[in-house]
Amino acid sequence: MIQIETKRPLHLFDGYGVEMEYMIVDKNTLDVLPVSDKILEAIAGEITSEVSRGALAWSNELVMHVIEIKTDGAAAGFQGLSEGFQAEVSQINEILAGMNARLMPGAMHPWMDPFTEMKLWPHEYNPIYEAYNRIFDCRGHGWANLQSTHLNLPFDGDQEFEKLNAALRILTPLLPALSACSPIADGEQKPFLDYRMEVYRTNSDRIPSIAGLIIPEAHFSRDACYEHIFGPMYRDVAPLDPDGILQEEWLNSRGVMARFDRGAIEVRVIDIQECPKADLAILALFTAVTQALTEERWSSVEEQKKWHEKDLYEILMSTATLAEKAEISDPRYLRLFGSDKTALSAGQLWQHLYDEVKDSALFTTEHHETLALMFRHGPLGRRILKALPQPFTKADLKSVYGKLCDCLENNGLFLP
User: Fold this and answer.
1) Is residue 415 part of a domain?
2) For the chain, which end, N or C, has fewer CB atoms within 10 Å of the first or last residue's CB respectively?
3) For 106-135, b where at least 16 C-beta lie within 10 A, e where not — what string?
């Protein structure tokens, strides 16, 4: 049973907003299929951008072959979310069966050509998407072929924002070591286990202030963020956005997004996994460690705030490339998490952090069991590569990604 937290304002760890993006593909070919409007219409009786389903909701995304399932508000905890998201996946797949289609998990489609296959959402909110397309050209992978799981963590006021932002800045660079699952694009293996992060970080290069270095700059109040992040971003986009369509906080494309308009910080660095069970296990662990950091279990907020985004960005790109095998060799960084080692792999650091927080009330038995399998077999990107022969063909990709679709239907982990 999913409980939605209705009290306001929400304070630190009072609630959790979760969003999961899935691809829609043809059941036989697994090619992308741009029919998200037909799914929403089948439930709502008309074409709409969002449908509430009680504790959860469905909504459109930038492109027509992606649909999002999300909590309709902030869930009070992670309990029940795996089953809740899975029920929505099953409902969407029932609708898609009539179109000879199904949902595909994973952060990037393995052979989609975004330059010829991308179709923008043409209905409500289309002017926003058209503005993005006009300014950035959304035909590349960085806009048209990247699916992620988003986590929204609430705060109330600058004091809570300071603690939460400080913790998220230093922990987020480690996320690809858990969640990297995009090693394949354009039908070939890329030099990143998390290639989605590589294309995401460059999708706004025309206006660098929009994405920055993915990890946000060290600003810890609303006024400071507006002066140093939002203000420059709005000024830089203004000449290309004369109607002011994009002058909103969601223009910020950093991987850790301050959303003062909703009293939350949104984390967008997580590659979506093969099933909700896997995503929720990662979110539970990430949140438990974030909470421990805000409580200064291993390091003070002041120590956490000192880190420059350039140093954190280097760690992020290392884990995006090598995932759990990335070496963390700065003992100052390790000390932030209570480790006295001079060097650890990112996977070893996550194992240390799990051992530290595994008694958290955030976890369910399912989370523990799922994380045990992830630690044993590696992130999904590693498991995908293990399942593919070398060299591989499109038929090999179709076989592996078809099994990933099966995992999503059954809420089971992919174990090659």
Assistant:
1) no
2) N
3) bbbbbbbbbeebbebbebeeeebbebbbeb
Element (H, E) at 66: strand 66-71
Q: Are 23 and 104 in contact (CB under 8 A)?
A: yes
Q: How many domains, in total, are found in the chain?
A: 1
Could you report the per-residue pLDDT of 351-371, keeping only the tens digit for each?
Answer: 999 999 999 999 999 999 999
Measured between alpha carbons, how far is 303 from 214 in angstroms, rounded to an integer? 21
CATH number for 96: 3.30.590.20
Q: Are 162 and 302 in contact (CB under 8 A)?
A: no
Phi first, then psi, for residue 147 (nearest 5°) are: -120, 140
Cα–Cα distance measured from residue 381 to residue 102, given in angstroms and rounded to the nearest whole number = 21
Beta strands in 254-338 (DSSP E): 256-259, 264-271, 327-328
* Containing structural domain, residue 104: 4-410
Give the 3-state secondary structure of residue 143.
Answer: helix
Q: Are 23 and 118 in contact (CB under 8 A)?
A: no
Give Cα separations from 372 to 61, 114, 133, 326, 375 (angstroms). 33, 36, 42, 19, 5
How far apart, in whole angstroms, are the C-alpha atoms of residue 46 and residue 42?
7
Is the pTM for the entire model greater than 0.90?
A: yes
Q: Which residue has the tokens 């992020």?
A: 316
Q: Is residue 416 part of a domain?
A: no
Q: What is the pLDDT of residues 33-47, one digit of tens each?
A: 999 999 999 999 999
Decide if 64 contacts 22 (C-beta within 8 A).
no
